[in-house]
Design goal:
It contains eight helices and four strands. The termini are far apart. Helix 3 crosses helix 6 and helix 5 packs across helix 6. By secondary structure, it is mainly α.
Length: about 170
């Protein structure tokens, strides 16, 4: 057998000679991988890894869910927050373009202040349905699911131009 230059890898003489011909190949390859990752990361983040993202403007909660959300908001949130705090320009500037899961995560990990994370996932989801209703987003047939995977696919904001054009083609 050939020389052993690494305790984990035994190379024959011919393999060792080939490896010595390109001493910077590993460094170049790893740098290329890092560059590709840096270039791809923003593209992946923009699409969130899926082309199935849809806007909450397409109706992602049920009317009765928003009604129960208003009741939960009044019980747990209204002592510190006016509904106007979660609507209008302030809401649009802070949340448009982000996912419903982002909103869910922030609310669940910070509210209610005297019992952080103390509500059920369904209660937090109902409150989000109410907040969406406050902001003029229409109700749909189905309730908003308290499911992080589906919430990540829902974008807060108006429908995108591509979603509009695909709906017109149907």
């Amino acid at each position: 057998m050939g020389r052993v230059h690494c305790p984990l890898v035994a190379l024959r003489d011919s393999e060792w000679q080939r490896a010595r011909q390109f001493p910077n190949l590993a460094a170049v390859t790893s740098k290329l991988a890092v560059v590709l990752l840096l270039v791809a990361a923003p593209l992946i983040a923009q699409s969130n890894g899926t082309s199935a993202d849809r806007s909450v403007a397409t109706g992602v909660y049920a009317d009765d869910q928003a009604v129960r959300g208003r009741i939960a908001f009044e019980s747990y949130c209204a002592s510190c927050h006016e509904p106007s705090f979660h609507s209008g320009d302030q809401f649009r500037m802070g949340w448009f373009g982000r996912s419903v899961y982002d909103l869910f995560r922030v609310i669940k990990t910070t509210m209610p202040e005297d019992n952080i994370g103390g509500l059920s996932d369904d209660e937090y989801t109902r409150i989000i349905a109410y907040i969406l209703q406050l902001n003029g987003f229409p109700a749909g047939k189905d309730s908003l699911a308290a499911d992080s995977v589906s919430m990540r696919r829902l974008r807060i904001g108006p429908p995108s131009a591509s979603a509009d054009s695909s709906r017109k083609r149907r």
